Each structure stands twice: as structure tokens, then as C-alpha cells.
Amino acid sequence: MSLIARLRAYAVEALGIGASEARDPADDTHLAATALLVHVARVDGILAPAESERLARLVEGRYADGPAAAHALIARATAVDTEVRDVASLVEMIPHEANGAEREALLAMAWSVAGADGKVDEFEEALVERLGRLLGFDEASIAAARRSGLSGVPAE
Question: Per-domain residue ranges for the chain?
């Protein structure tokens, strides 16, 4: 059970909050994935406009039905990232059942966000490589995701 699911179950049990809400497990996965992308965008301490725009475009294209839904998901993910602040905990929120293609897409998206401002700094590189290992990828797969995510990004 993911951390979000455990927190939600506790809130329902202890406080009766959200007991009547039917939740799609994919919503939690999308929230966790978006929180990871937010974490990557903010790791160097600067959320460049290009990173913010790339994040919004990627989230809208993969996890949200339109710009308003993407911005709402990013706002929720930012709150989760602020609360959690640890990439390993965010990865734990992604179900182990998530297929390899979804995990690979997430890693490529992380590289894309990291390189959106035209460069991948050392903090971003270390974080996304760690994310790749936490998602279960070897070095060759991480490098392939980097090439995929950074294709079209100007060289550093």
C-alpha cells in the first residue's frame, strides 16, 4: 500500500474524512509521478520558467485532461513534494505493479524537466540518476532514458 493510500485510509478510519469518495488508484500514481517531476524541477533551488512550462506540458500530456487539470495536479504534487521532500518516499508512492514502460516514461520525463532550461546541473543529474536506480533501472537504461528525455534539448 502506498504512503498516500495509507494516509488516506488513516484519515477515513480515524477522522471519517473522504469516506464517501471513490478514488481511482491511478490518481495516486499520477500524483506521485507528478510530485517526482516537481522535485526534479526544484532540486537546484530555481524553478526556471522553461522547467515550469515543460512540467505543465508533460503532466497535461500524460496525467491530466487539459491545462486546468494539469495545473491543479501540479499544485497538489507541489504540496506533496514539500511535505515529503525525499525522492525515495515519493518513489514508494508509485505502486510496484506499475509497468516498466510507465516507469521508463517517468524517468524520461524527469530528464526532460531537468534539461528544460538548456542544461542539466549536477544536482539535477544526481537526482534523476538516483531516481532511475530507485525505479529499478540499470545504468544503460538510465542513459537511454536520458537520451530520450533530452532529445531536442540544446547541448549544454
Answer: 24-150
For 33-92, write each residue's pLDDT tens digit.
Answer: 999 999 999 998 888 899 999 999 999 989 999 999 999 999 999 999 888 878 888 888
pLDDT at residue 1 in the model:
55
CB-based contact 53:116 (threshold 8 Å): yes
* φ and ψ at residue 121, rounded to 5 degrees: -80, 175
**What is the pTM (predicted TM-score) of this model?**
0.80
User: How many other CB atoms are found less than 10 A from the CB of residue 126?
Assistant: 12
Cα separations (Å) of 137 from 3, 23, 142, 145? 22, 29, 6, 10
Whole-number pLDDT of residue 14: 57
Is the CB of residue 103 less than 8 Å from the CB of residue 145?
A: no
Q: Which residue has the cell 531536442?
A: 152
Q: What is the CATH code for 24-150?
A: 1.10.3680.10
Burial class (CB in 10 A: 0-12, 13-18, 19+), 1: exposed
